[in-house]
């Protein structure tokens, strides 16, 4: 009975570490985009594509992404697909015929981001960090309770209660 909280504690520690590592990876990717994606232009949605993604239980879902055409500062026209996915194809920026702000790397103009999608990404990443920290704290507390129980720290308290 004293090892009751060990497995949930270790699971919380593991999941917390996964969330924090995911946050760090996504943040470093965002920082790399911030360094290289400096030019901006307007583009239009020329089509949508879809791909199948899987969750941790191997359940599939279809996500839709935009294919945008834009003109870079060098005067050349580019067409590239966003890697940002939406559950509904009508949610893809530019679906209503509106122009969208495109941020791109002047050295590699096909490396781009839609400004609206980038803003969404930046607002979501701190949530990963918060969830990771909360899970780590819970994991440490549960693991510490288990260790204290196994060492008999609670024995005098339990004996005085009963």
Short description:
The protein has 162 residues and is an alpha+beta fold.
Question: How would you describe this protein?
Answer:
A hairpin with a 2-residue loop joins strand 4 (100-105) and strand 5 (108-114). It is built from three helices and five strands, in the order αβββββαα. The protein is of the alpha+beta class and 162 residues long. The two termini are 17 Å apart. It has helices at 6-36, 115-150, 155-161; strands spanning 39-54, 60-71, 77-81, 100-105, 108-114. It is elongated and about 80 Å long. Helix 1 runs antiparallel to helix 2 (115-150). A five-stranded antiparallel sheet has the order 3-2-1-4-5. The chain has one domain (6-161).
Task: Give structural attributes.
162 residues, elongated
Strand content: 25-35%
What's the helix count?
3
* Largest sheet composition: 5 strands, antiparallel
Helix content: 40-55%
Radius of gyration: 24 Å
Per DSSP E runs of 2 or more residues, the count of β-strands stands at 5
- First and last CA, distance: 17 Å
- Succession of helices and strands: HEEEEEHH
Shape: elongated
Low-confidence stretches: none
| Number of self-contained structural domains | 1
Overall residue-averaged pLDDT value: 86
Which structural category do the helix and sheet elements fall into? Answer: alpha+beta
Major β-sheet strand ordering:
3-2-1-4-5
């Amino acid at each position: 009975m004293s090892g009751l909280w060990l497995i949930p504690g270790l699971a919380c520690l593991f999941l917390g570490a996964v969330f924090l590592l995911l946050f760090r990876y996504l943040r470093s990717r965002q920082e790399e985009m911030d360094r290289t994606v400096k030019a901006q232009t307007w583009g239009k949605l020329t089509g949508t594509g879809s791909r199948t993604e899987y969750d941790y239980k191997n359940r599939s879902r279809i996500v839709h992404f935009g294919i945008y055409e834009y003109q870079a500062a060098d005067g050349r026209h580019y067409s590239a697909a966003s890697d940002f996915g939406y559950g509904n194809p009508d949610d893809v920026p530019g679906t209503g015929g509106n122009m969208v702000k495109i941020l791109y790397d002047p050295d590699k103009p096909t490396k781009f981001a839609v400004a609206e999608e980038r803003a969404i990404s930046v607002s979501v990443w701190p949530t990963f960090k918060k969830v990771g920290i909360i899970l780590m704290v819970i994991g440490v507390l549960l693991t510490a309770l288990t260790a204290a129980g196994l060492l008999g720290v609670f024995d005098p308290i339990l004996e005085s209660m009963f």
